[in-house]
Amino acid sequence: MEIVYVYLKKRSEFGKQCNFSDRQAELNIDIPPNPELAEQFVERSPVDTGIQCSATMSEHEANTERFEMETRGVNHVEGGWPKDVNPMELEQTIRFRKKVEKDENYINAIMQLGSIMEHCIKQNNAIDIYQKYFTEEEEVEVTDEAPSAKTINVFRDPQDIKRSATHLSWHPDGNRKLAIAYSCLNFQRAPMGMSSDSYIWDLENPNKPELTLKPPSPLITLEYNPKDSHVLLGGCYNGQIAWWDIRKGSLVAELSTIEFSHRDPVYGTIWLQSKTGTECFSASTDGQVMWWDIRKISEPTEIVVLDITRKEHLESALGAISLEFESTLPTKFMVGTEQGIVISCNRKAKTAAEKIVCTFSGHHGPIYALQRNPFYPKNFLTVGDWTARIWSEDSRESSIMWTKYHMAYLTDGAWSPVRPAVFFTTKMDGTLDIWDFVFKQCDPALSLKVCDEALFCLRVQDNGCFIACGSQLGTATLLELNNLASMLQLSDPNIQPSMFERETHREKILEARHREMRLKEKGKAEGKDEEEELSTDLEALVGVAEEEFLDVIFTEMKRREAEAMRKQP
Amino acid sequence: TEVEETLKRIQSHKGVIGTMVVNAEGIPIRTTLDNSTTVQYAGLLHQLTMKARSTVRDIDPQNDLTFLRIRSKKHEIMVAPDKEYLLIVIQNPCE
C-alpha cells in the first residue's frame, strides 16, 4: 500500500518564507500486526547482546616487507677531484695543487693550524700524558652496610625454677658446643629446690641439652680445657672447684676439699698454659687467688691473698670478681675486684708481697669483666659499674679510653678475637652493644636488644662470628654477626695501635701535670707563712699612701685659699 | 714560503711520522705519505672531525672544535680542523 501525501503551493507563494505552526497529530496509517506472519519466526529468549557505549574501532596488523640494511665503509682510493681535473694525469693534479697553494685562505689556514699543531706535538714529546702517576692502590672496599647481628638460636633453661646463666664457654675445637653454668647470684636468695645442674648444649639442638653436669652446688663459672676438650673446670657457689671428664659422665670427676677451697663463691676460673694441661687457677670474693693442679685437686698448689697493702691480711683483702690470664704473658695475671680496682700480679715473684705488682683504680663498682686485647696485650678492657674502660699498662692513674655512663649496669664485656678495635658489652637492660673504637667512640657501633631481662654474660667464639649471651632467666641467645663486625677491616691495623698510643700519651701528659700540681701544692703549703707577713706589710703601705695623699690635698687647698684671700682686697 | 717552512718544521719534530694537508673534498694538497694512505686518512678523518665538531656545538652552540687527538696503540693522530682544510699529523709519542 502506498502512502501518499499531496500538498499544493500557489505560484505566487513560491519563495515565501515558511511559517511554522503547531497542529495536532494526525494518524496517517495504522498497520495492525498480522499474527500469520509470526509463524515464520521463532521466538528466541533470552537474547544475549553485548552493548558498548564507545566508538567502535577495528584493529589491523600489517607486516612490512623486510628491508635489509648493511653498514659498510668506503675505501677511498682517490679524492674528490673536481670535474675538470683528471686524477690520472699527474700534470693536471699538480696544477690544481699549485693553484690551491696560492690561495690566501690556504696560507692563513695553514699558518694557524700549524701553530696549534706544533704546540701539541711538542706537548707529546715533552711528557707522556697518559702515564700512570699513581701506582695501583688497593681498592679499599667501602661497604655501606652497617654492622648487624641476628639471633640464630635460643637455649632455654629446661628447669622450672629459672636460674641465671652466669658463664658461657665455647668448645675449644670446632665451636659446636656451648657449656653454660647456671646459678642464682642473688645473695642467699636461691629458691628452695633450685637445681644445681649446668648443661652442655649442642648448637644444632636447642631443645634439649646434650649433657648435664651435676655439681654439689650450683656452678658460677665453667670453662673448657683448651687443650683437652673433654675436660671442664667449674667453680661452685660454695667455693669449691670441680672438674669433669665428659667421657666419664655427668657426675663430678673430682672435687676440691671444702677446707682448702675458697670461702666465697668462685667467680673466676681459668686454665693455665702448662705442659700437662692440668693446671688452673681460681679467684673468689674472699680475696684469695688459688692455683690448682687437677690431678691433685684436694689442695691448692699456691695461694695469693689480694691485699693491696701487701701484708697478706685476709681481712683487708679485696674480693675478686674477675680473673684474667693471657697465654702470651704466662707469668702475669690480673684480677678485677669488687672494690673497682684492677690488680696486676706477677706469679713468679719470690716473696708473696712482690706478687702484687700494681693496681689500677677507676671503677666505682665491681669489675665484672677484665680482658686483655688479643692483638695488643698491653691494653686491656674492664667492664664495671656503668662504663667500660680501656687501660694501658703504662698509665696507672686512669684508663686511657672509656665509654660514657650508661643507664644500666654493664655486666660483661669481651674483645673481638678478630678485630682489634671491636669489643662487646652486655647490660642489665638486656642489650648487647658492639663497640668499634676505630669507627665511633661515643656510641656503640651497634646496640641490640637481645631480651627483656638482664644479660649476665657473653662469650665470643674464636672466629669472631658468633656471640653467645646468657640472661637472668637462664636463656642463652646465640647471635651471628655480619661481615663488618666479624671480618678484619683494612683500616684496622693502621689506626688501632696509633689510637691506643695516642690515648696513652695523653694520659701520660695528664699524669705529669697532676704530679706537677701536687708538687706545687706542697710548695704552697710551706710558703703560706711568708704570705701572711707580706699581707701585713701591704696594709701598712696602704695607710702610708693614704696619709700622703691627704697631705697633698690639704696643702693644695690651703694654697688656693691663701691666693683667693690675697686677690680679694 | 712560510707555508713550506711551517710544514717542514712540523715534519722535522721528533716522532712525527707523517704530515698532510687535505681539503674539504678529500684532495690531498700537501702530504708526506703516499696517496692512497693519505686519501684514506682524509676521508675517514674528515667524517670524524665533522662528527666531533657537531658534538661540541650541540652541547654548547657557542663552542667550537679546535683540535682533535686520537691516541692509538701505535701512534697518535692529531687533526687541526679548519673551514676548508684539515691539517693531519701522525706522531709517535716517545714514552
UniProtKB/TrEMBL annotation, chain A:
GO terms for biological process: cilium movement; determination of left/right symmetry; outer dynein arm assembly. It is found in: Cytoplasm, Cytoskeleton, Cilium axoneme; Dynein axonemal particle. InterPro entries: Dynein_IC, WD40/YVTN_repeat-like_dom_sf, WD40_repeat_dom_sf, WD40_rpt. One of its GO terms (cellular component) is glial cell projection. It comes from the Eukaryota. Its main location: cytoplasm. SUPFAM superfamilies: WD40 repeat-like. GO terms for molecular function: dynein heavy chain binding; dynein light chain binding; microtubule motor activity. Keywords: Cell projection, Cilium, Cilium biogenesis/degradation, Cytoplasm, Cytoskeleton, Dynein, Microtubule, Motor protein, Repeat, WD repeat. Consists of at least two heavy chains and a number of intermediate and light chains. Interacts with DNAAF2. Interacts with DNAAF6/PIH1D3. Interacts with HEATR2; probably involved in outer arm dynein assembly. Interacts with CFAP53. Belongs to the dynein intermediate chain family. Part of the dynein complex of respiratory cilia. This is Dynein axonemal intermediate chain 2. It comes from Otolemur garnettii.
TrEMBL record, chain B:
Residues 3-91 form the Roadblock/LAMTOR2 domain. Signal peptide: none annotated. The keyword Ligase does not apply. One of its GO terms (cellular component) is microtubule. Its main location: cytoplasm. GO terms for biological process: microtubule-based movement. InterPro entries: DYNLRB1/2 (IPR016561), Roadblock/LAMTOR2_dom (IPR004942). GO terms for molecular function: dynein intermediate chain binding. Keywords: Cytoplasm, Cytoskeleton, Dynein, Microtubule, Motor protein, Transport. The keyword Cytoplasm applies. Pfam families: Robl_LC7. Gene3D superfamilies: Dynein light chain 2a, cytoplasmic. It is found in: Cytoplasm, Cytoskeleton. Homodimer. The cytoplasmic dynein 1 complex consists of two catalytic heavy chains (HCs) and a number of non-catalytic subunits presented by intermediate chains (ICs), light intermediate chains (LICs) and light chains (LCs); the composition seems to vary in respect to the IC, LIC and LC composition. The heavy chain homodimer serves as a scaffold for the probable homodimeric assembly of the respective non-catalytic subunits. The ICs and LICs bind directly to the HC dimer and the LCs assemble on the IC dimer. Belongs to the GAMAD family. Acts as one of several non-catalytic accessory components of the cytoplasmic dynein 1 complex that are thought to be involved in linking dynein to cargos and to adapter proteins that regulate dynein function. Cytoplasmic dynein 1 acts as a motor for the intracellular retrograde motility of vesicles and organelles along microtubules. This is Dynein light chain roadblock.
